[in-house]
Design a protein that fits this description.
Elements (H helix, E strand, L loop, with lengths): L2 H13 L12 H18 L5 H13 L14 E2 L1 H21 L3 H29 L8 E8 L4 E8 L6 E7 L4 E4 L11 E9 L5 E7 L3 E4 L8 E9 L6 E10 L31 H7 L3 H26 L27 H10 L73
Helix pairs in contact: 2-3, 2-4, 3-5, 4-5
């Protein structure tokens, strides 16, 4: 058991000889709520003859909150303001729940004292948490911690004394850089009675030189040099004669950092290039080329677009250049002829030639005979056929673009006659 815990234990035992008040009742809000319970709630929910006895038992139960076993790990008779605030809020919440329920008679009394027992257990858990985590949190030095004594409800400053020195720290800094010495600890902000931070330079003969003093917990020295290496001491003062914190710093100054600067490959100055001298740009390194190369997503996207365009071009070329057959044109005549039409090559025969000779025209053996009634001779205005009905009774549609003028006419429904050209089969002119 440390000296600060021993002194606290003696004070807690001495407080037992004083009138007990309990930690929770040290909060004015709890006192006000108990007074409201007696004057406002009891008259309408409990017989008047029981008022005095019930309130006496309630106040005693609240005072019994401090009747906990004294243990340095669970309860030492003191708490801080935060712990008292949590315990009081828990009790006030339970009392409000009872008054809002509007219970009466014996049920009200039983509910009230059951709530007070639970509130005492809650306070015990809060006190144990405070003792383990909040009470004297400093690991070294002197901390002045404000505490509330449950026996007297008085707030006093307790001295948490630990080892005087808080150790040594090694600091390494490069030449021409800034040196920062930090003297602040996590419990400094909650401690009371602190004054100033003082930084000293400690020489080899143990003499000291004050370098800085004030509220700032850090010492900063810019652009250090080898002569700044050595030992420094930080001290945090208190209102008492004992300092709160003492820390030693051993500073080592390392050589200056070497920073390699790579000039830009395209940067040129007029001083570096003489008149009439040609300077070639340095080739880009692989790292530069790699940084300028597109990412894998862009490369994949470009490849997919190229493949799509190539496929479209191949498809269009295949459709344009693929061999195809043009279907034979339909007959230019709208009505079927009632007479047979001779073969376009041999069907005209000698009769067509004799008729043409009588009219003073040269026979057209190469072209053959035309279908009667289809196309007329522009000079005679008559049909070239010699047989069949009057072609004027028919109104065929002639002049098909696929059948040039002078070509022989062949009905699409009439098969060609057998050929006498040595077994050769004549072809249809439109196939």
């Amino acid at each position: 058991m440390g000296p600060q815990r021993l002194s606290l234990l003696v004070a807690a035992l001495a407080g037992c000889l004083l009138p007990a008040r309990g930690c929770v009742i040290c909060d004015p809000k709890v006192v006000e709520e108990l007074s409201s319970l007696e004057t406002d709630y009891l008259p309408g929910h409990l017989e008047a003859k029981h008022h005095k006895d019930v309130m006496k038992r309630v106040k005693q139960a609240v005072k019994d909150f401090q009747d906990l076993p004294i243990d340095e790990d669970s309860y030492m008779g003191v708490v801080d303001e935060a712990t008292l605030e949590k315990a009081s809020w828990s009790l006030l919440k339970d009392l409000k729940r009872i008054t809002d329920s509007d219970v009466k008679g014996e049920l009200f009394v039983d509910e009230l004292f059951w709530t007070l027992r639970l509130a005492k257990d809650t306070f015990a858990s809060y006190a144990a948490q405070f003792q383990k985590e909040v009470f004297c949190p400093n690991k070294c030095g002197l901390m002045l911690q404000p505490l509330i004594w449950c026996s007297t409800c008085q707030k006093q400053v307790h001295s948490c004394r630990k080892s005087r020195s808080c150790g040594e720290r090694k600091v390494k800094v490069h030449q021409m850089e800034d040196m920062i010495l930090d003297c602040e600890l996590n419990w400094h902000k909650v401690s009371q009675g602190l004054t100033d931070y003082s930084f000293y330079r400690v020489w080899k003969n143990n003499s000291e030189t004050l370098m800085a003093k004030g509220q700032e917990p850090t010492l900063t020295k810019t652009m250090v040099s080898p002569k700044d290496a050595g030992t420094y001491r930080c001290e945090l003062g208190t209102v008492q004669s004992t300092p709160a914190t003492i820390i030693h710093f051993h500073v080592t100054v390392l050589p200056k950092r070497i920073v390699e600067e790579t000039p830009s490959p395209n940067t040129e100055t007029q001083d570096e290039t003489a008149p009439g001298e040609v300077t070639l740009d340095r080739p880009q390194t692989s790292a530069t080329l790699q940084s300028q190369s597109p990412g894998p997503e862009k490369v994949l996207r470009h490849r997919l677009v190229g493949l799509l365009i190539g496929a479209i071009v191949v498809l269009i070329a295949g459709v344009a250049w693929s061999p195809h057959r043009t279907p034979p044109p339909r007959s230019s005549c709208r009505f079927p002829l009632p007479f047979p039409v001779p073969h376009p090559v041999l069907g005209a025969g000698a009769e067509a030639e004799a008729e043409q000779e009588q009219r003073g025209q040269e026979p057209s053996r190469a072209r053959g005979a035309r279908g009667p009634g289809c196309c007329r001779d522009p000079k005679q205005g008559k049909s070239l056929g010699s047989q069949g009905p009057d072609p004027s009774s028919f109104r065929p549609r002639c002049g098909s673009p696929s059948q040039p003028p002078g070509a022989p006419f062949l009905s699409p429904t009439q098969p060609p006659p057998p050929s006498d050209l040595g077994g050769l089969v004549p072809l249809h002119p439109h196939l």
